[in-house]
Structure of Carboxy-terminal processing protease CtpB:
Amino acid sequence: MESKQSFFRGRGGRLFSVLAVLIVIVFLAGGILLATNYKHLGNLVKVVTLVRTQYLQTVDTTQLVDGAIKGMVGSLNDPYSVYLDPKTYAQLHEQIKGSFGGLGILVGIKDQYLTVVRAYKGTPAAKAGIVAGDVITKIDDRDARGIDLETAISLMRGEVGSKVTLTIDRKETTEPLQFTRELIREEISVPTVESQVLPGTAIGYAVVSQFTEHTSEEMKENLAKLQKEQVKGLILDLRDNPGGELIAAVNVAKNFIPKGPIVFIDYRFGRDQEFSSEGRTAQLPLIVLINGGSASAAEILAGAVKDTGAGTLVGVKTFGKGIVQTVFPLDNGAGLKLTTARYLTPNRNDIHEIGIQPDVLVQPEENSVLDVQLDRAVELMKQKIAG
């Protein structure tokens, strides 16, 4: 029987010698000094060799490479930097475009739990009875506790007509609920801006649920509709808006922010970037509703409104995500979402892990059907209009 030593010197040895050379090239290209890291590099090669030659099951090289990349990105301890396998990468683009095959729910991470922010009317999720505040603990057989957002979204989406099972924790119940009926994926095209004139008032009310490629155009359409109805003030609801595209948030902000900066992007490398407004196009008194679920791109808009005095923020402190991710395409359809910059408000405030404080603090009432934050915003808007 051939010895392990001769095997390592043979085919396996040649394979991993090539692998070692490739790893060395990658490390050199990244500017890492092998003189101080050769032991770790050697361990990497040894582990790959041992897995390929000693592990009980056959392991595909692609699986090992993907695992190495995920581990590298995971070592950053940055929950917003994620390796995206081809399926997840494609679904991220679908989410940005605002049309996809899925269940019709908007989700976010709250206290490290995957939480439903909204179930859109008429979608499979809404028909099954899923509501805002539900905590998703399992997606099919996959434990969803501590899961990153991109992976969760990829698991819930799939081919139109296919089924998915969600296990839900709800405050009002003691036992987990399983939603299996009617959770059949459909083609979902989600509006990101919805508006109305509040009954008995001349106040426009617009909800922005997230920022996608379509949000800016949807905002223009909704503003035009509200202005035709001769509203005298606007309440913009950014509560539980998890963010989205930076450019979409900037373009929405141009409707409300006076001439000057909207946001500064502060990069580690290269020139910093400033996004500015040429002057607000919506000449209406403005109130913006915010809460702990208002994050990222939503905070760009809220921060610009606060710093420029373009409106009044009502609610509670925002989430505090003041960093920017860039999505880089990789080979074979994969991608890398990497934190590449931080953003600063027009007054150059860094709000990461700090959040934005409202101008008018209004705590929500738990277990109440009343929306005291919206009620307070209406009261303040009436004063603005009357004044």
Q: What stands out?
A: The first strand starts at residue 82 and ends at 84. Confidence is low (pLDDT under 50) at residues 1-18, 24-34. The chain is about 35% helix and 25% strand.
